[in-house]
Amino acid sequence: MNQLLEWLPLLLFFAVFKLRGIYFATGALMAALAAQALLYRLRNGHFKKVHLITTAVALVLGGLTLGLRDQRFIEWKPTVLLGLAAAAFLGSTWVGRRPLARAMFEGAFPDGLAVSARAWRALNALWAAWFALLAAANVYVAQHYPASVWVDFKVFGVSIATFAFMLPQAFWLASRANRTDVQPGA
To answer: Nearest-CA neighbor of 91 among 100, 83, 102, 82?
Structure first.
């Protein structure tokens, strides 16, 4: 259910775009993101930072899109968010208790991972570069292709590419999981 709530604004944006166009889709996205943040708050007692940031960016850029009737503003939303993610991953190398890549993956491996600090920093740098590359790709697609291609890229291309980027890392990390069900020497 939580995963559906995470994907619902994006899927709603896609469906409304196909039915009514970019301006209705932008309004639907803005409303869905605000509702998502509030629903999370009601269910968990606090806001999720990523929801607040995403909603704020969508409200500002979506508001400009609707107010000025210029789709370029909403097309910048993924670029801004991906750029912020790249900066956050990069900054977490020096600020905070651990790199964001480590925080992201360690939750999936509750028994721990045998990965050096240097390897975590390298993995974190890969994620920062990945988000920067996706931000640049979004700009390119938005500027060189029709809105329908950009929407497909935003909804499916970025998601599928990120899954493909993450999959080998997940397998590599799984091979370094500290498993308590394996006997020494087995």
So the answer is: 100
133 and 147 co-located in one domain: yes
Do 1 and 143 contact (CB within 8 A), yes or no?
no
The two structure tokens encoding residue 62: 């979506």
**Residue 182 covered by a domain:** no
Domain around 83: 71-177
Structure tokens at 2: 């939580």
Q: Both tokens of residue 15?
A: 């469906």
- Do residues 109 and 129 make contact, with C-beta atoms less than 8 angstroms apart? no
Which of 15, 46, 69 is where one domain is finished?
Answer: 69
| Per-residue pLDDT tens digits for 71-109 | 999 999 999 999 999 999 999 999 988 999 999 998 888
